[in-house]
Structure formats: C-alpha cells, structure tokens
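Students often ask why inverse folding is considered easier than folding. One informal answer: many sequences map to the same fold, so there is more than one right answer. In these notes we will look at a single instance of the problem. The structure comes first.
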C-alpha cells in the first residue's frame, strides 16, 4: 500500500495468490485489516484458492457504523460465500459493539477488542503523535481483526491438521456470548482464545431423515437434530446448501449457501426450515452440514425437491 494505507484491488489479489504459493512452507492465516464497499469475483476466486490451500482469511468488517447485511463490505462479505473467510467487528472495554464498528447478523461473524489497542509503528510516526517509544494507540476493526488472526494462528499451532472451516467454527462457536451483540453478529459474541482450543474429536452424528415436510405451505424441510457428540448434546452450527444438481465434495462450494440457517436444537428435537419462496420453479437438491464447537462435521442425506 501507499503512505496513506491505500491498496489497489489487483495488489490485494496478488498478495493472496502469493500467500497460496507459500502454503507449503506453513502459511495458514491471512490478516485483512482493510476494506471498502463493494464485491469482487477476482478476490473471491483468489480466496477460494486459499481455502483449497488450507489458508484462512480474517477480514475487517469496517468502521462506517453500517449494517453489512445491507451494504456489502469488501472483502469481509465473502464470509457468506467461502468457508475460509471470517468477518470481524470491534468491541470496547464495556463489551459493547464499538460505536464505529460495522455489524451484520448474517455477514459479520465475531467481535474482538478494537478500542484503544496499543500497537507498533515507526519511531518517526510515533514522535509525530507525541510519543517516542515506537508505540501507537488505535481504534478500529483493523485492530480487532489482527487479534482474531492471532487466535486463528494459535488454533493452527494446536491443531495443525485443521481445515479453514474447522478453524472458523472454533472461532465462532466458542465466543463469550454477549447480550449486546445478539442479533448483530453471527456468533453473538467476542472471540475467546482459551475456549477456541477446546479438544473434542467426536463429531456430530449425521442427519439421516432430511425430507420434505408433508403438506407444508410454503414448502419446508424437516429433520431430527443429532447432537454435538454423536447423538448427545447440541451441535453448534448448520450449513444448509442447495443446488440444481446433486451436491458432491467437488461441487459443494458452488452450491448456494443459506445465509441465515436455524441454530441446531438439542439432540432428538424435530426441526424445520422453510424453503425460500423466491426460488424459480425447477428441481433442487438440499444438503445440511452439521458442525460442533470444535469444527467436527457431519452431513445429512441429500433430498431432492421440485418447486412447482
């Protein structure tokens, strides 16, 4: 970037591509403490390649006091499209959303401290700000993002074989839930490094009875909740996908991701989800991925639904 910290999108894509080439040497986390309104297919492709290289990208939600569910913020909006992007809001010392921080119930994942954060800078800039120690105090989702990047690196150090989605789920499922963040962030909380390292090797049981709910208007799917450990407890997150062709491991990322899926209920609970009413008439295939708090995953059976 230049002296003002401004970047060209092409330079950002080049940087992501470079990180991918360094994956064989241990690169696992990209910190993206920047942002601007908009979207980018080129950056999405680059970050999808990073996902394939087992690299997670931690992205700042932005400092415009806006709802990112309404106005897309680049690159953090890609959390709704890619398994390896985490969007970060800023919190203050009172566990409130920082006054400047962007937010979004479906497009911003977690909060982290972003007010009065001490960082390093050049001695010249530090002196210009009235300090001589090379330190600077800053506010922003950029600072919060750096903290979450550090936690992601900590997770990788403890569990080096983790995939990006496993790290992402660990970050989201193990937050300190804060009432003031409920409805404003996907996780409803502030990142907790200690809890994110929880050891759990037992995945949820797969959902085996996903089906169309008989007689429902509008159309809906129903299934029986499994659990956090097999058929016990309560899983952390659902990822519901649909496509016009059967969903396979190689086509999963091209399937449409439901932006606001229901939260898993305790094992044995009957659950329903209403199919979006704006889908065009044709046949669709639906699949649910179930995650526990450690990122262990199971899948449902796939169900075929024809929209009349």
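Output (designed amino acids):
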């Amino acid at each position: 970037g230049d002296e003002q910290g401004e970047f060209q999108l092409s330079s950002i894509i080049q940087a992501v591509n470079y990180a991918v080439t360094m994956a064989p040497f241990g690169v696992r986390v990209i910190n993206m403490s920047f942002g601007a309104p908009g979207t980018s297919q080129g950056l999405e492709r680059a970050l999808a390649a990073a996902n394939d290289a087992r690299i997670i990208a931690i992205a700042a939600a932005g400092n415009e006091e806006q709802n990112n569910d309404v106005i897309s913020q680049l690159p953090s909006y890609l959390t709704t499209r890619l398994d390896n992007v985490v969007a970060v809001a800023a919190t203050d010392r009172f566990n409130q959303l920082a006054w400047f921080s962007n937010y979004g119930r479906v497009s911003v994942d977690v909060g982290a401290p972003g007010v009065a954060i001490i960082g390093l800078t050049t001695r010249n800039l530090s002196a210009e700000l009235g300090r001589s120690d090379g330190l600077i105090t800053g506010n922003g989702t950029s600072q919060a993002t750096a903290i979450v990047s550090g936690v992601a690196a900590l997770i990788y150090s403890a569990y080096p074989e983790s995939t990006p989605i496993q790290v992402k789920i660990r970050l989201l499922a193990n937050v300190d839930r804060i009432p003031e963040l409920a409805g404003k962030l996907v996780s409803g909380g502030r990142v907790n490094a200690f809890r994110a390292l929880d050891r759990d090797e037992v995945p949820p049981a797969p959902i085996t009875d996903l089906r169309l709910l008989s007689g429902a208007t509008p159309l809906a799917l129903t299934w029986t909740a499994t659990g956090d450990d097999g058929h016990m407890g309560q899983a952390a997150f659902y990822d519901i996908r649909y496509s016009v062709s059967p969903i396979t491991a190689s086509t999963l990322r091209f399937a449409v991701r439901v932006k606001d899926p229901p939260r898993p209920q305790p094992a044995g609970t009957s659950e329903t989800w209403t199919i979006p009413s704006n889908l065009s008439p044709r046949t669709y295939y639906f699949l649910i991925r179930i995650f526990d708090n450690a990122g262990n995953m199971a899948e449902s059976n796939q169900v075929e639904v024809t929209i009349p």
